[in-house]
Amino acid sequence: MKAHRPRRVLTAAALAGLTVVVAAGCGSAPDDAGAKDSKAAKAESAADLGGMDKLVEAAEKEGKLNVYALAPDWANYGEMIAAFEKKYAIEVNNEDPGGSSQGALNAAAKRKGQSRAVDALDLGTSYMQEAKKQDLLAPYKVQGWDDIPDAQKQPDASFMNNYGGFISIGCDAKAVKNCPETFKDLLKPEYRNKVALNGDPTESGSALAAVIAASLANGGSLDDAQPGLDFFQELKKKGNFVPAKSTLATIQQGETPISIDWDYLNLGYGVKLKPKGVDWQVAVPSDGLYSRYYNQGVNKYAPHPAAARLWLEFIYSPEGQNIWLKGFSRPALLDTMKKDGTADKAAVAQIPEVDGVPEEPTAEQEAKAKETVVQGWGKAVS
Amino acid sequence: MPDKTALPVPAAGSVPAAGTAAPAPPAPPVRDGGGPRRRTRRHRWPVVVPFFVFLAVCFGLPAGTMVYGAFTVLDPASGTSELSTENVSGSLSGAYATGLTGSVELSAVTALLATVIGALIAQAVVSSPRAGLRGIVVSASGVLANFSGAPLAFAFIATLGTTGTVTQLFHLDRTGFSLYSFTGLVLAYLYFMIPLMVVIVLPALDGLRAQWQEAAASCGATRSQYWRHVGIPVLTPSLVGGAVLMFGTAFASHATAAVMVGSSQPLITIQIANALNGNVLVGQENLALAMSLNMVVIALLVMAVQIPLQRRSTRWLG
């Protein structure tokens, strides 16, 4: 019977331990409630805080910036974060760099009042609209606000276009004799087992854009994505489509020698693949001209409100915008910077010239296209 | 001697237990000081309390949230949520219904193949006179059974994809073989399911005593008669239990298929992941919960087959 006492002690200890674990796991108690009501949290421009110097001062005092799902190899985000950290005494905490837009939105919505909530959001337009609907965005006008084209910003300054690009066709010029330049080309028999997407259109934004672009190239419209699905069905029937997700590894290995993706990602792949002996060519298809922008916004419940605002100022400064350009994407202030000469000319020259005006869907059109693709994709390519 | 073939129960099966978990078994009344036995019983029940707390927190809470979420719809305009069967009916129609049946088909086919092939391999090991073989097979199976997910998918792409080494070597593409098909997915799944089945079924085969075969032989039974009337019937519960576990493993797998074929082979796990955490669908969490609920229902149905058989399994292989 000696064993009883220790056993009870153990039980009590186990219970106590469990309680601690559970309490820690549920830790949603606001631990930084003051940030929301600070002066910086109400600032709608740098002027509201008394100018850029005051904003920098406040941000450096906070010393930290939480961002989410900013992949370092995506549109040059690695350099953007490093340059920001170097310029200011602020540590950037980039959580889950390979994460998704939905994950970033959750990190903003479900951590209100916590010090680990995300400060600034980089999201596709539909996710930004969702964030706005959930009242998660604080209006903020960067210094270059007036130069951002009206079509690329929200009138209430809740979010604005950040960087974007066109759907393009990447091609391993050593494995493929004649690189395809249009969607129509992709159906040629010489591309058997060669054409892939960067993921699954029911999950990946760029793969969804590829289907919409294919629809535009095949008699569809922004209101009708079905011709895009029909195109991929035909691609599959001809044996040209490879369902494996194209990555640097599959490209290098030769499994996905042709990949439809954003031009800035394909051009970035080219730089990385060159030392490995792959000649990666990128063409923007003239028959399916489709462009989309990602957006930037400040979380209303940002634990580091000044740092979040300074981050936006940095991204939209000529320095930040040129970092996007160097990563092959098109920044929102590109036209102004080309005119006033602040754009990095060498970087501008690297970006493919595009003839014609790209079509941009409205929120309703995009939602409808998603529904069509999510419901029809499996059927089209299985 | 190995114990009965303890079958790990898939996690989904534990969910309903949580509902009954909250009231811990009451302590028996103690009138007087009580003998040593009574004292023991009285003081032992708190030991299981952490377990039930664990069950309630880790299974009960998520299960409750899942059921609640599956039956609620958030009105985007007013921000209020209300009860509705919209998500559940949505999860049972269109592409999502195809995903559910696709998952069931794939799981059934792979479970059947893995059970048969795994049992044959295990029997070969048990009846082999080489003692070293067993050690090799068991440790290799242990390693291979855990080799799944994205690394496995890429290994398959590199060997059996259209430009894979094996495909090129044997000109498999001329035979019409494609890794990115139902067959390809079955092959990839079997790669980790067969070793798992070997590990699971070995103890059951050890339980077949040599004396039974000798007894059958001395009564004039042939080898096939022994298997037909003694071996297989005794093993059946273990084999069915193994098949159920195989079904559950295949049913819940996600990463291998996501990397290899994406949505081109409809699978419910991929659809749940895309609805929950993608870059395309906004605010579809409750639809994902409804799909998860469908998965739990199917897992429970399959488990229901196994429970009566498990009761029998201790009779011979004790």
List the helices and strands and how they pair.
The complex is a heterodimer of chains A (382) and B (318).
Chain A: H1 4-25, H2 39-42, H3 52-62, E1 64-68, H4 77-87, E2 91-95, H5 101-109, E3 120-124, H6 125-133, E4 137-138, E5 160-172, E6 195-197, H7 205-217, H8 226-237, H9 248-253, E7 258-262, H10 263-273, E8 280-283, E9 291-299, H11 305-315, H12 318-326, E10 330-331, H13 334-340, H14 345-350, H15 363-381
Parallel strand pairs in A: 1-2, 6-7
Antiparallel strand pairs in A: 3-9, 4-9, 5-7, 5-8, 5-9, 5-10
Helix pairs in contact in A: 3-11, 7-8, 8-15
Chain B: H1 15-19, H2 36-70, E1 72-74, E2 81-83, H3 86-91, H4 94-127, H5 131-145, H6 150-160, H7 165-170, H8 182-207, H9 210-218, H10 223-252, H11 255-260, H12 268-276, H13 285-313
Antiparallel strand pairs in B: 1-2
Helix pairs in contact in B: 2-13, 4-8, 4-10, 5-8, 8-10, 10-13, 12-13
Notes on the structure:
The complex is a heterodimer of chains A (382) and B (318). Chain A has 382 residues and is α+β, with helices and mostly antiparallel strands. Chain A is 42% helix and 14% strand. Chain A contains 15 helices and ten strands. In chain A, the strands form two sheets. In chain A, strands 3, 4, 5, 6, 7, 8, 9 and 10 form an eight-stranded mixed sheet that branches. Chain A has a two-stranded parallel ribbon with strand order 1-2. In chain A, strand 1 (64-68), helix 4 and strand 2 form a beta-alpha-beta unit. Chain A starts with a helix and ends with a helix. The model of chain A is unreliable at 1-34 (pLDDT under 50). By secondary structure, chain B is mainly alpha-helical. Chain B has a domain at 98-317: MetI-like fold, CATH 1.10.3720. Helix content of chain B is 69%, strand content 2%. Chain B has 13 helices and two strands, in the order ααββααααααααααα. Chain B has helices at 15-19, 36-70, 86-91, 94-127, 131-145, 150-160, 165-170, 182-207, 210-218, 223-252, 255-260, 268-276, 285-313; strands at 72-74, 81-83. In chain B, helix 2 (36-70) packs antiparallel against helix 13 (285-313) and helix 5 packs across helix 8. At the A-B interface, helix 1, helix 5, helix 6, helix 9 and helix 15 of A face helix 2, helix 4, helix 6, helix 11 and helix 12 of B. Chain B: This is ABC transporter permease subunit. Chain B: InterPro entries: MetI-like, MetI-like_sf. Chain B: Residues 100-306 form the ABC transmembrane type-1 domain.
